[in-house]
């Protein structure tokens, strides 16, 4: 499961030895995030984002538990209890804004983490399971964030809940009963608010569970690295502790500076003013937008304005929106290139930087813009490229591309030479 | 031992036990799923009576039905003529005004105030609100326009505004639901 040169856990204290024989939890920690986990020595800063994501999850759980102590999930008082938390509860303002901005921070981090995976081919064998579990975590995060945004029961909360549960109404035949079942009524009301609160409290712990599986699956082949060349020898790795613990600590510092800047100086910058108006089922805000982290997918939803043969535009939009994420599940098998890293894939790299990234940026922008021209047409073009990128571009590129020569090893890519390369037979240097 | 015929006592016990556990499992899942559906009090509040005596031709009111808005609109003869002028076959959700109103009460257009796209409340019922280019309702969320029979004419909504079940209990009172 680990490399043969991984250091073994050898407790010196008699109590730790006694413990190791009965419940080897310290051994598990040592082998997971301690000196017993050898990690490629050449990781760049993009590899800090997995750790930062875990940090965000902890931040959200801690601040969320505090919020739940002051919140009441009842449509009569929910809005007021949130305001009361902010205004009257000691440090309540900080907890509330840390939780709201923490959700945004979590998504910033996770988007970088996911796009790191896209560029460096982290999804490829033997790490498909790590990738699949990651996509599951992302879906759980989206569900959790959506339900959390409903809880303050402001105008955006209410209409967001109505629009998103309305998506299920687009499903043929079972749509309407399904929507009523999800809401426990005909429109979002007390029943819906209560179950959203219950699930919003539950899902983060489900995420913790899947994160554990994600890390477990990761630690079987070990971490990937920017060259995409697998670890060959001890000189390719350094122990997680102290090297990456220190580097992740540095990342916490940078993250904390940015997070605190948002929290203390721009706590509402990413929120929407309409959510400071209590929910009113009789009046829709003029411009409904979801939270920024859903914008690309919301843009895809709205990009479908014409019926597609027998499929109505609305259902098509819903299918496309979910499809935009579900397509990630197939990525390890759509990309057939044996070379992992975008650094050695000149053609893939071009499509990544000049195709996927701009398309995603356009979708981001259009998802937050009103549903009018030119934004609708721009989202249509960007959505078209988005799907083409995964379903057409990646399979074709991986078939026709001539990758750049790979370094013999991680050591060679770092030091410029590797003693082992001189002794090894030459052909292996060109194979992934 | 009856092993000659291939069926042992153990096999029977095994199948019986697993079957019983399966039935019990379904029995546990049914209440867990069903409790999420609309509760009795929500369903009990699912009809509403509206007094329409004060609505003048050309006016509309918003009533509340199942915690959602209902538009009750008194159509003018001009609006009725507009609605009847349309070639029904050309509509996305083909329906005539007669099919969407009660016989002899064609001027009373009663529909849900819930856009069939994603559930926003369209504008056009309140005084001075924009009615869209077809003179009915206009949804500000994604630009769906409805005509004077509240039929979808333009924009992403797939269906006409839903006509709830209703009946005139008297000439001036409508029971919705």
UniProtKB/TrEMBL annotation, chain A:
Binding site for heme b b562: 99, 200
Cofactor list: heme; heme b
Membrane topology designation: Multi-pass membrane protein
CDD domains: cytochrome_b_C (cd00290), Cytochrome_b_N (cd00284)
Limits of the Cytochrome b/b6 C-terminal region profile domain: 230-408
Transmembrane segment boundaries: 49-73, 93-118, 130-151, 157-175, 196-217, 249-266, 308-331, 351-371, 383-400
Gene Ontology CC annotations of this record: respiratory chain complex III
Primary localization: membrane
BP-aspect Gene Ontology terms: respiratory electron transport chain
Protein name: Cytochrome b
From TrEMBL, chain B:
Iron-sulfur recorded as keyword: yes
Catalytic activity, as annotated: a quinol + 2 Fe(III)-[cytochrome c](out) = a quinone + 2 Fe(II)-[cytochrome c](out) + 2 H(+)(out)
Gene name of this polypeptide: petA
Catalytic class of the enzyme: translocase
Top-level taxon of the source organism: Bacteria
Cofactor binding: number and manner: Binds 1 [2Fe-2S] cluster per subunit.
Any further remark recorded for this protein: The Rieske protein is a high potential 2Fe-2S protein.
Function statement: Component of the ubiquinol-cytochrome c reductase complex (complex III or cytochrome b-c1 complex), which is a respiratory chain that generates an electrochemical potential coupled to ATP synthesis.
PROSITE patterns referenced in this protein's UniProt entry, alphabetically: RIESKE, TAT
Similarity section: Belongs to the Rieske iron-sulfur protein family.
Listed Pfam families: Rieske (PF00355), UCR_Fe-S_N (PF10399)
Cell compartment(s), UniProt: Cell membrane
Classification via Gene3D superfamilies: Rieske [2Fe-2S] iron-sulphur domain, Single helix bin
UniProt-recorded Gene Ontology molecular function terms: 2 iron, 2 sulfur cluster binding; metal ion binding; quinol-cytochrome-c reductase activity
Names of required cofactors: [2Fe-2S] cluster
InterPro entries, sorted: Rieske_2Fe-2S (IPR017941), Rieske_2Fe-2S_sf (IPR036922), Rieske_Fe-S_prot (IPR014349), Rieske_Fe-S_prot_C (IPR005805), TAT_signal (IPR006311), Ubiq_cytC_Rdtase_Fe-S_su_TAT (IPR019470), Ubiquinol_cyt_c_Rdtase_Fe-S-su (IPR006317)
Membrane-related topology note: Single-pass membrane protein
PANTHER family: CYTOCHROME B-C1 COMPLEX SUBUNIT RIESKE, MITOCHONDRIAL
Transmembrane parts of this sequence: 12-33
Organism: Novosphingobium pentaromativorans
Iron keyword on record: yes
NCBIfam families to which the protein is assigned, alphabetical: Rieske_proteo
Source lineage: Bacteria, Pseudomonadati, Pseudomonadota, Alphaproteobacteria, Sphingomonadales
Protein name in UniProt: Ubiquinol-cytochrome c reductase iron-sulfur subunit
Predominant cellular place of this UniProt entry's protein: membrane
